Each structure stands twice: as C-alpha cells, then as structure tokens.
Amino acid sequence: MLDIHKLSKVFPSGAVGISGVSLSLDGGVLGLLGANGAGKTTLMQMLATITTPTAGQIRFQDVDILRQPDYLRRRLGYLPQDFGVYDNLTAFEFLNYFAALKGVSSRARVLEMLELVNLHTVAHRSAGTFSGGMKQRLGIAQALINNPDLLIVDEPTAGLDPEERVRFRNLLGDIGSGKLVILSTHIVSDIESIATMIAVIKKGRLLACAPPEALLATTGGRVWEAVLSSAQFDGIRSSLKLSAAVRKPDGIHARIVAQDCPLQNAVPVEANLEDAFLYLMNFAPTAFG
Ligand SMILES: Nc1ncnc2c1ncn2[C@@H]1O[C@H](COP(=O)(O)OP(=O)(O)OP(=O)(O)O)[C@@H](O)[C@H]1O
Asked: Could you tell me if the CB of 205 is within 6 A of ligand 1?
C-alpha cells in the first residue's frame, strides 16, 4: 500500500528533518514513535504531500506520489498536530464545510461521522465551546469524512485528559482494518494497544519498523527489576536506564533496561513496549529489522 524509499528532508537552514528512511506498509495501524524533534512531523508532512522531500521516493498503491500528489490527496485523511477548529461554526457546520472542500456533498455522511466520533448530541453547538478532546474528535471526523485509504494523525492525544485519550485511541483502533493509519506520538501507551506495526525514529533516522511482538522479543532478556533503598536508588538512577520506578513497602522497585545484569540483586523480568523503546533508543540502533 505505502512504500517509502530512502526518504530524506534537509531544510534550507541545514537542519535534517528525516534521513534515508525506507518503509513498506500494508493496512493496519503504524505507531510512529520518537522523542521531540526526532522528525515525526517532517515525515508525516511529506506523506501528506505538504512538504517536498529533498531525496527519495514515496509510492502509494503503486503510484509515484511525488509526481502525482493528487492521487494520494484524494485518498488521504490528515489531522495535523496544530489542528484548530473555527470557533463560531457549530460541529455540523464545521464538518459540512470540510466535506464540501473534499467534494463530499452528503448531509447523511456528515451526520454519520458526527455519530462515529460521538458528537452527534452536540452537533449544533459552536465548536468554540468544546473541550480539547471534543475538538480532536471533530478533527478526526474531518480527516475521515472522505473515507480515506490513508489516515495520518500527528500527536493526536497531546492535551487530552486520560479518559479522552482512551476514547480517542479506541476510535483510531477501530478504523485500522482495510486502511492504513499512521499515528505519531512520543508516548508509548498511546499506541500500545492499537499499533500493528511500530516504527521508531531518532534524530531523523529509522531505528526499527516491526510488529510490537518482534520489538518485545528482541528486548527479551534485557529488562531487570531490583528492589532498592532510597539511598541505593539515588546512587544508580543517573548511571542506569530506568524504565520505571515504583515505591512499595519493601523499597523502590526499579525497572532497568540493560544489556547484562546491572545489579547483584536484579532479576530478569518480561519486557513491555516502554522497555523496548528505551532499549532501542539507547542500546540497539541496528538490532531491529
Ligand atoms: N521548517 C523547518 N525549518 C528548519 N528546521 C526544521 C523545520 N521543521 C522541522 N525542523 C527540524 O527538523 C527536526 C525534526 O523536527 P520535527 O518537527 O519533524 O520533529 P518531531 O518528531 O515531529 O518533534 P515534535 O514531537 O516536537 O513535534 C528538528 O530538528 C526540527 O528543528
């Protein structure tokens, strides 16, 4: 469905956004993970055809997108990071407006989308009165209005409260079948339950693109837990890669990602995706396919 070959973007200032990224994806949900400034937005903007690469190729459904961007634009839904609503339009008017821009003239489709994102009961309230989560849901509705084959959402859960995060995540997970959804975030839990593939980028380079199970398997045997006193914990916290630390009655349970057993009393534990991300970012830049 989507093939990216040696894609790079160097800005006129000389800053490197993305460097030599190659990916091949079919349907499902790709979670694009990376720290702030890793290049997620740059990559997504190139895929959304609003930034031109300096090198490389993008093919979607076997069509060269750099030569024929309109082919993808007609099949694309895009929720940018800085998406804003028009405050004085109602949810219905807002969505109807986007529908018209995308050549969708069905009032029924607008109502159907409002129902999908659970805004149908507030369809005639002005969007300016909505919470952050409601605005994001309106954003996803405009991205879906043309029934896109490729849906790109850039850090959609930033600024949402925990309940809204879960609701939004479930909504995206349900869209995945038969389509390709690309969701960027720097928060592992945002994609943990819905991603069928995970790509990790660091400083513009792709470190990994693999199913979550494969990332977990490669991190197996690299995660340890040790129970430490506060003083011991303070002694090791800056020298070891800590994935989590939980205070319990018997001490601080520190979860450590390391190539070899990091402390005498550390015991190996099963890896989770947070561990895998930490391992990849710190130890194994070329360990994943
Ligand atoms: N228009 C631009 N001009 C110059 N440099 C840019 C431009 N846009 C992005 N960059 C640089 O490219 C790199 C990648 O930025 P990008 O915004 O793609 O990262 P990101 O992973 O989306 O980060 P965040 O999570 O903070 O949004 C950064 O070093 C950034 O400073």
From this structure: no
